Amino acid sequence: MKIYGISGLGADKRVFDSLSLEFEFIPIDWIDPHKNESIENYSKRLSVVIDTKNDFCLIGVSFGGLIASEISKILNPKTTILISSAHTKNELRTIFRWFGKTKLIKLMPTSLFDPPRLIAKYLFGAKNTKLLNDILDDTDLLFAKWAVNELTNWKNITQLKNVLKINGTKDKLIPPKGNTKMELIENGGHFMIVDKADEISKIINNQIKRATTRCIKHS
Q1: I want to staple 127 with a disulfide (CB 3.0 to 4.6 A). Which of 94, 97, 195, 213 is the partner?
Q2: pTM value?
Q3: Which of 88, 96, 84 is nearest to 160 (CA)?
Q4: Using an 8 Å Cβ cutoff, are 8 and 123 in contact?
Q5: pLDDT (tens digit per residue) in 128-137
Q6: Rounded mean pLDDT of the chain?
Q7: Between helices 94-102 and 141-152, what is the axis angle to 10°?
């Protein structure tokens, strides 16, 4: 069973390095969004790298979880695991949706999407601040602006089966919310895929094993 991973807003595959997975893992690199491209169309373009001839699973982190949810509506993963993320728009903070309605994001200078590092540390609840800072330093700010706009204007209300969320009890950005099946990580912040990697790895491996067992039973 192959696992395809989609990292968070502006981040890259380094966020997956601390995981200990028992299955083949393939991180998906971000591509540049087209001007005014919707998250739905972007997800469709990004999904072309996935080998759908064989069984596969998806992991999406933060904004990558929104992308994973959109791809899951197009393709047929055996399971989709969302880490520090949301499965529908109703699982996001109300203030995000309100901010999206104001249409202010497109008017904001791109430089504002590079947050002061102390604020980022607080919002992400990160213990590994070096890795967080390295990722933020390498973030494409044009991509970050596009992603924030799409997050705050996300329309998805489709509740898919075989979706598992892993959320932290102390996540300041996307706290636990909604009816999607969920595993809670005690004291987990938004950067818990790194800081709580051992706990998260166990949950992922167990979920993939269950998905693999279902595939064998139905084959």
Answers
A1: 195
A2: 0.94
A3: 88
A4: no
A5: 899 899 989 9
A6: 92
A7: 110
